[in-house]
UniProtKB/TrEMBL annotation:
Keywords: Acyltransferase, Transferase. Residues 281-370 form the Beta-ketoacyl-[acyl-carrier-protein] synthase III C-terminal domain. Gene3D superfamilies: 3.40.47.10. It comes from the Bacteria. Residues 150-217 form the Beta-ketoacyl-[acyl-carrier-protein] synthase III N-terminal domain. The keyword Acyltransferase applies. Coiled coil: none annotated. This is Beta-ketoacyl-ACP synthase III. It comes from Thioclava nitratireducens. InterPro entries: ACP_syn_III_C (IPR013747), ACP_syn_III_N (IPR013751), Thiolase-like (IPR016039).
Length: 372
């Protein structure tokens, strides 16, 4: 049996930033337009007026200060409220493959490898721009990688589930070097017209390179992985190829976007995650005192504060549980990998940390790593 080591990570960050102030200004302009257009029906009590959003609420409820997006102008146009992306021909790289490739190149560079060294690509993300051919196979070709590639979707837990799949294949010897890539264009599936969730998501792509220990003198040894799922409708998206067959599937775009019962998610996911981490650490023989850092899924600051406190049994010290959501918002599967990528350089050999994602499904995935 081989051992699997993370030797490189890469983050692609889009160039457009939307601050909370810009987001709220656009949302409020959209709400005013909606209310003016529907003034009679609102006065007659047939439909409800759209209330304004607020910068203070967003920061307090989520900890998010800004988000990166692939297109700012379409999102902030009050008559549109979703991104405008360039039409691409079938013969040029798709947008997911393009941003995935950028993150992959950064991860390969960090490890001193090239695309040709890779023999497995897993594209693990919440939303795929098409059903087939797999985005991962397109990335495999663009990288000049060998072996095989496939897509997988476990919503926010896609990265950790992908790392488990890749690490298992490396351990058993069926592949030598794997890239798990998470291109998340969440701006495409966020309902920017809904004030309850319009602030939640941002775009990004992350990549993680995993190699056999004998090929990798430095990096983060994957000590153990653990995945769990439990069905819930509280985070849901009804888009898909059957949409046009449903009577209400074409008329209202709301149904095919991200929807959630945020409060229920908060209440139900927290104990699931805290219990999952506790059990995983116990099974791995890692005491919480020996845990140097938690790189958590990035959905909500209070949620992460709660998990950090529950796992460590005290308030985390600065740097023990770094958040990136204030800058990136929730980037679905990529969040914990951005945190890992940006806050792991200072680890010394023997120090242990835990990457943990959680979200729709429900799903939770954790990876215990040790610096070597
Ligand atoms: C979504 C939340 C930030 C919302 O915060 P709260 O629960 O505190 O707030 P709430 O929805 O109860 O709303 C409180 C009050 O504020 C109002 N309110 C809502 N939105 C507002 C806005 N933009 N501006 C001003 N006021 C607003 C509501 O109408 C309500 O009013 P009143 O009090 O009058 O009724 C939070 O619940 C959360 O983060 N939950 C966890 C979500 C999560 O982790 N989801 C996973 C995402 S999925 C994921 O990560 C990806 C994946 O799995 O694929």
């Amino acid at each position: 049996m081989h051992q699997a080591v993370i030797t490189g990570t890469g983050v692609y960050t889009p160039e457009h930033v939307i601050t909370n102030a810009e987001l709220v200004e656009a949302f409020n302009a959209y709400a005013d337009l909606f209310n003016a257009e529907n003034a009679e029906a609102i006065a007659a009590g047939e439909i409800e007026a759209k209330p304004h959003s607020s910068v203070e609420f967003i920061l307090k409820a989520s900890g998010i200060e800004q988000r990166y997006v692939m297109d700012k102008e379409g999102v902030l146009d009050p008559t549109r409220m979703y991104p405008r992306l360039r039409q691409r021909s079938d013969d040029e790289p798709g947008i997911m493959a393009e941003i995935a490739l950028d993150a992959c190149h950064k991860a390969l560079k960090m490890a001193g490898r090239t695309g040709g060294d890779v023999d497995l690509v897993i594209c693990a993300a919440s939303n795929m721009e098409r059903a087939y051919p797999a985005i991962a196979i397109e990335v495999q070709k663009l990288l000049g990688a060998g072996g095989f590639a496939f897509d997988m979707n476990v919503a926010c837990s896609s990265a950790t589930f992908g790392i488990q799949a890749a690490a298992d294949m490396i351990r058993t010897g069926s592949v030598r070097r794997a890239l798990v890539v998470n291109p998340e264009i969440t701006s495409g599936h966020l309902e920017w017209r809904d004030r309850d969730c319009h602030f939640i998501f941002g775009d990004v792509a992350t990549a993680t390179l995993i190699e056999r220990r004998e090929d990798a003198p430095h990096g983060f040894l994957i000590r153990s992985t653990r995945c769990a799922t439990e069905f819930s409708n509280n985070i849901r998206n009804n888009n898909g190829f059957l949409r046009r067959t449903r009577p209400d599937g074409v008329a209202d775009r709301r149904d095919m976007q991200f929807m959630q019962e945020g409060r229920k998610v908060f209440k139900e996911v927290l104990p699931m995650v805290a219990g999952h981490i506790h059990d995983h650490l116990t099974e791995t023989g890692v005491a919480t005192e020996d845990l140097h850092r938690l790189w958590l899924h990035q959905a909500n600051k209070s949620m992460n504060d709660f998990i950090g406190k529950k796992v460590l049994g005290r308030d985390p010290e600065p740097g023990e549980q770094p958040n990136i959501l204030q800058d990136y918002a929730n980037t679905s599967s990529a969040g914990s990998i951005i945190a890992f990528s940006k806050y792991s350089d200072d680890f010394k050999p023997g120090e242990i940390g835990l990457i943990c994602s959680f979200g729709a499904g429900y799903s939770v995935g954790s990876v215990v790593v040790e610096k070597i």
